Amino acid sequence: NNAIITDCWIDVITAPATDGQGTAAIALGFVSATDIQTSANYNGAPYSTEGLADLAGPEPGTESGYIKLAAAVGLLMTIATGGLTAGRFFVSVDYVVTD
């Protein structure tokens, strides 16, 4: 509650793979389904290359893009247009808590 998200990035351990039934797209968010990473194909940035990658938002030092949470929420991952059969990544979130 009252957390302000200031930065997010991803550490891809194993790039995602599909079941061959469509091109899966992945989005990440807290307040909305896409507020830290808009929907992107599983085989494109930031998911396709193992290692560290910056997510779409917010960017440190750009306060207008920070995300303030009004309640305690978890990370939401949305997978669309195809199934994933493999893949492993960690999402890191920097935040501060205010009143």
Q: Nutshell version of this structure?
A:
With 99 residues, this protein is mostly beta strands.
Can you offer a commentary on this structure?
The protein is mainly beta and 99 residues long. The chain has one domain. Helix content is 0%, strand content 52%. The chain is built from no helices and seven strands. Strands 1, 4, 5 and 7 form a four-stranded antiparallel sheet that branches. A three-stranded antiparallel sheet has the order 3-2-6, with no helix packed on it. Strand 2 and strand 3 form a beta hairpin. 12% of the residues are buried. The model has no long low-confidence stretch (mean pLDDT 92).
Rg over CA atoms, rounded to whole Å, is 14 Å
- Return the structural class: mainly beta
Distance between the termini: 9 Å
Q: Proportion of β residues? A: over 45%
**Domains (count):** 1
Largest sheet: 4 strands, antiparallel
Number of helices: 0
Low-confidence stretches: none
- Secondary-structure element sequence? EEEEEEE
The quaternary structure here is: single chain
Shape: elongated
Number of DSSP strand runs? 7
Q: What is the percent of helical residues?
A: under 10%
The averaged pLDDT comes out at: 92
